[in-house]
Design brief:
This protein is 34% helix and 17% strand. A five-stranded mixed sheet has the order 1-2-3-4-5, with helices on both faces. It is an alpha+beta fold. The protein is globular, with a radius of gyration of 21 Å. Helix 2 crosses helix 3. The chain binds zinc ion. This is SWIM-type domain-containing protein.
Length: 161
């Protein structure tokens, strides 16, 4: 018994190594006639989705940063990335402003999603993604030589320097 206790007490405690938790929606903007942004994948920290909803048209687009179409976006119902994008936009801009910008008629007590006249309308992810990269570049980074975690998804960013 005593031996067990002693052995347990000297066992090194190693904190579990977990990947850095990324913001679910690291980037959202109302620009270019769209609500657009970048949504991190729930299952793969290496992958992000570029999602957008057209103002007025309500055309939905969702693809990975490598321009692979999102498997969750079929027909006219927003995938979970678009829903996360919409949720984040409501947090940042307020539901009224988002609804006005996208021209969504929100019925009393219904969500913005319910007011979308949505259809699938693929748009190139590259435009949104370059806005995101500009946004990252504007972030004030602490003076450090360590790799910037936000940028390590994008090998091409490092290679460009
Ligand atoms: Zn999606």
């Amino acid at each position: 018994m005593a031996v067990d206790v002693e052995r347990r007490s000297v066992a090194p405690i190693i904190p579990p190594v977990k990947p850095r938790k990324l913001a679910k929606v690291p980037f959202v903007e109302l620009a270019d006639g769209r609500l657009q942004g970048v949504v991190s994948s729930g299952s793969d920290v290496e992958r992000v989705y570029v999602s957008s909803i057209g103002a007025g048209s309500h055309g939905l687009s969702c693809s990975t940063n490598n321009n692979r179409p999102c498997g969750g976006l079929r027909g006219s119902y927003p995938c979970k990335h678009l829903q996360a994008l919409l949720d984040e936009a409501v947090l940042q801009y307020g539901a009224d402003r988002v609804a006005r910008y996208l021209r969504i008629d929100v019925e009393e007590g219904r969500s913005l999603t319910a007011g979308l006249r949505a259809h699938h309308e693929p748009s190139p992810a590259a435009t949104v993604f370059s806005s995101f990269l500009r946004h990252l570049a504007y972030l004030e980074l602490p003076d450090t030589t360590a790799p910037v975690p936000e940028l390590h998804w994008f090998p091409s960013v490092g290679a460009a320097h």
